[in-house]
Design a protein that fits this description.
heterodimer, A: about 80 residues, mainly alpha, 2 helices, B: about 270 residues, two-stranded antiparallel ribbon
Chain lengths: ~80, ~270
Amino acid sequence: MKGMTVELLAEISGNVNAIGYGLAAIGPGIGIGILVGKALEGIARQPEATSILRTNMFLGIAFTEALALIGLVAGFLFV
Amino acid sequence: MLTALMPMATDDDGGFKAPTVGEFFPGELIFVGTPFAMTRINLMGLLMAGVVCVFFVMAFAKPKLVPSGVQNLGEMAVDLVQKNVIDEALGEKGKKYAPYLISMFWLLFAFNITGILPTMHLAISSVIAIPVMFAVIAWLVFNIQGVRALGFFHYMKANLFPPGIPWPIYLLVTPIEFVSTFLLRPLTLTIRLLANMMAGHLLLVLFFSATSALLLADGFVKIFAIPSFIMGFAFTLFEILIAVLQAYIFTLLTAVYIDSATSEEH
């Protein structure tokens, strides 16, 4: 069309890193939810296995959580 | 006044200023200009390491069969790590590593808990030097113990060539195993501890500095200082939990790495 000008409809200001960290938190969030839920399910079914399940749950959380934390650190690194 | 008590990131005019990474790089305090220049964080680290040393020396300098006083506390401290970490992850062969793992747990806890201790307000492990040092030591311990237990070639074979898969897959599996065992393990140990303590400190600064800024603001906005303060307080309690949990996870992972490095089967 003739005479159409490009108009600025919306603008984002601020730090894009915040969005990046938000995205990085989605996966590990879901992961930890599933992980702890399953561990609790196992504990409820078999209370005598509590200690080994809990140890392994913390191990799993540690590995899953690392991803979210790398997202956080990356936000500070690549400013 | 409230502002005097809190880890502040406000301007002089009391306006809100979001916390930055600058929080973790305070100025040098003593021996300025020499290679031994020390910041607030270094001094806190020396102090907390001293506290841990003095505590354990006091507890076990003259051990008695029936413990009393500080020795009770010391035995509780040792028992906690022995039962929850060493017995769970290493079992019988954990005896050899008990001194290393127990002292690591309590040092890490002491370095983490300064994040919420009044007048300190900054976890010593939220600067990378501390986590990286602990991770390098853990890496050396599990590799050296693995080589000593299995011999160099057997250790490498057990780690890089997991049995029971057809040989072409090794082209894919071996590099992945190498990266995950020898590079990512110390890296994730470091980043996990560092980022947790860093995030915790930033959260606390954010809430308390918002409390102060809102309190000094004009008009009805003042009342939002209350929920901000409550959140800050709640996260202070949460940080205590995180301090214990991160020390626990770091020690547990080290124990698991030692266990997997020194056992025959994978």
